[in-house]
Amino acid sequence: MIVDEKEYKVRLFNNNYYRKTCNVCKTPFWTKDKERTNCADIPCSDYYFLDLDVSKLNLSVKEARSKFLNFFKRHDHEIIPPKPVLARWREDLYLTIASIVDFQPQVTSGLVPPPANPLVISQPCIRLEDIDNVGITFGRHLTTFEMGGHHAFNYPDKYIYWKDETVELSKEFFTEELGIPEELLTFKESWWEGGGNAGPSFEVTVGGLELATLVFMQYEIKGSDYIPLKLKIVDTGYGIERLAWFTQKTPTAFHAIYGNLVYTFFKKLNQAPVDEEMLKTAARLAGRIDTDHPESIKLHREEVAKKIGEKLEYVDSELTRAARVFQVLDHTKTIALMLADGLVPSNSGEGYLGRLLIRRTLRTMKLLGANADLVDLISEQINYWKEDFPEMLKNKDYILDAIENEEQKFNETISKIPSIVNNLSKKKNITAEDLAQVYDSNGVPPELLTEELKKKGIELQIPFNFYALVAKRHQTAPIKSEKEKSRLTKDVIDFASKFEPTKKLYYTNQYLREFDGNVIGVYKNFIITDQTVFYPEGGGQLGDKGFIITSTGEKYSVIDTQKVSDVILHILDREAKINVGEKVHGEIDWQRRYRLMKHHTATHVILAAAKKLLGDHIWQAGAEKTPEKARLDITHYKMLSKEEIRKIEDMANFVINDRRPVNAFEMNRTEAETKFGVSIYEGGVPNKASIRLLEIKDWDVESCGGTHVSNTSEIGAIKIVNVEKIQDGVIRLEYVAGDMVTNYAREIEDEIDKTSEILGVDRSQLEIRSQRFIEDKKKVDELLNEYRKWYIEYLLENSSKEIYNGVNILILKNIIDQEIVKEIMKRFTIDSSKVVVNIYNNNQKWIIEIATSSNIKVDPILDNLRKIGGKGGGKGTYCNVSFVTVKEDDIINAIKQGLKGSL
User: Fold this and answer.
1) Residue 604 annotated as binding site
2) In sequence order, what DSSP letters do the residues of 866-883 get, joined into one string?
3) Which one is the CATH code of 488-588: 2.40.30.130, 2.60.40.3140, 3.30.1360.20, 1.10.3720.10?
4) Strand partners, 476
5) Residue 704 is labelled as binding a ligand
6) Which CATH superfamily is domain 11-249 in?
């Protein structure tokens, strides 16, 4: 993109500013300093702000945040509370990576208005693309940071402010609020692109440190074309932590952000403090580290050693140690923020990113040789940040319990390293991709793998940005298109797409059972009417069934209902002979629908119960409602106990018996988020300006397009019938509601009756008889084991044996007790040159089992048995072969021939 110089000529620069070109990076920049020759940004400049005698402030992160917000509040910006670090209002993104993400895509696309205009916010953000650089650059890179953003949304008919005002506000903030001389400010020209949008920007730097980026989002990118947007957005990002570092001028940014917590972590990680003059020198020169070229780290440390007059080996060791402590410091805060906002560590989605960060922290602690407890370190972070981020304190119990659970899993993973390395070492060429795959599937840090590989003489270089590469693969969510989501074929979707939205009578009255409508579209066995009471499949609720009667009296069964956007398709049992414009009468299968309504409302009741009992980290990971039963998948870090399951069930039934009203209503999206939070998107994120909310009084509010009962009492009752862990971090609850509870009870009764019949007792005696049966069986098992021991000894002594080619062959006949066969095979083949053969008849087939000692391969024996008609398989020291008809002598001869190639 070639940018016109006019894009960067703003009103402020008419006030004795010079447009210059940096003598290092050749980028244009604006300054009042006539003598300046570079852009005052790294790597063109060191962090010389550490030596500037300007700004007499000494701001903590909290004070920097407050100063930023209040400055813009005084300039008519409304302060907006930040959103969670988990971007759950976005279907394409897991983490909140910038303040503008809070308003994407609905506000930035013009679909809905912003919560205020203009507005200001300090948004905690998480970015993992620079995770490998944290600590090494002494604060230039962090996984979590606060982005102070002031935003203005300029509509064609409503101008707020644009470039002139944005740059002037920036100048005023830095000069008047922070006390920075205007001559030290540089506005470096830049170009921003992201999320399909683009625009010119300024990077505001002072003394080598970039303090803010001012972006003017004014283009939409379509292919190679840049199309002007109707909605032009001021998108700024001020580094709150950098403002604190700039005013404090501490040895590193970590000292400015964490204060005394830095020294606490050094102590808890069993590390002596690193010389602060060395750290300050390293930080001052940190801009010279090119993160794309790891060799620049060595050059940086050589320069530090030279500056302070110390040996390189000492400086390298000390700065490596400091960087690792800073990594743990940074990562533990990020982990606490993630978990506080509801992340559940797992192997997929946002949970994968959380686990990656936890395991990288544990790996760094191992590299430090620290005996520290991660739970203890996270607890320190919670106590330090509890006023800034109240969610940390609110969810402290969950956070610490989840961390303890993750530590246990990590230790279990570490124990698997030897077997993983054994498998890896069999490969001719082990690559970095192999390490990434092992990390994806097992969560084993590459440093621990390469350490074990080295013991086997295999040297492998880990990519410097390994964790960033792995995180990048998992940072966005796969989004399905409308066609991918639909069960309908392309021709049907294309047909339905031509029509106006169908009037949804089931929203007018969810208890309507029938309707009259005009047919506006017919295609094969699909018909579209202008209005309908048939609910189309969506939100985990199945589509309605029923029938449609034409004006001539012909009756069609509706076997399913689907939709394309807002057009509803009735799928008939046969090709429709119905004319467009014809009036039809439709009626749903009410009993089926009513059961669906009960199960759908029950899902909302149970989800809220689980969240209230287990914590705010509970999030809907999937759901399905059928007439027979429903299921709800929730994010949770461990299996539910029997007591927890019963409590959820009791809470749900309490709400049912409490006869709470259930009300569906429409609300402006921005207003809904402000009032109820992003938890309204548990079931998905609708892309509409106005969203339909379902409220169960004093219990739950959630966005939902399904059909529901109007009072919880109509659900009747809820019974949880099954709970299982379907994947790491996801628990599935299955339950029945209404009259399906009766059906479930009948099934249980039938099972009890059958069991009673088998045992020959009355129901009332079933428990006593079962206990007696178990006790009797235990005695029989003990007796059987004694007989087995005797019989095994007998068979070992008296079974047919012969020696062939130095191999001792033991032949068993008609031994069908597998426990006996296994024990004999184990005991007899413990010595070398031994073979056990068991021959028995099973369902008119001859079964041949063969076990060999470790020095004999079974494969040649198996091949010979196949040559005489055997079918079966095996490997190593065991095989199993079957014959329809066979002579014993032929079997023994085939085994003997196979032994020639086995030794």
Assistant:
1) yes
2) HHTT-EEEEETTEEEEEE
3) 2.40.30.130
4) 93
5) yes
6) Bira Bifunctional Protein; Domain 2 (3.30.930.10)
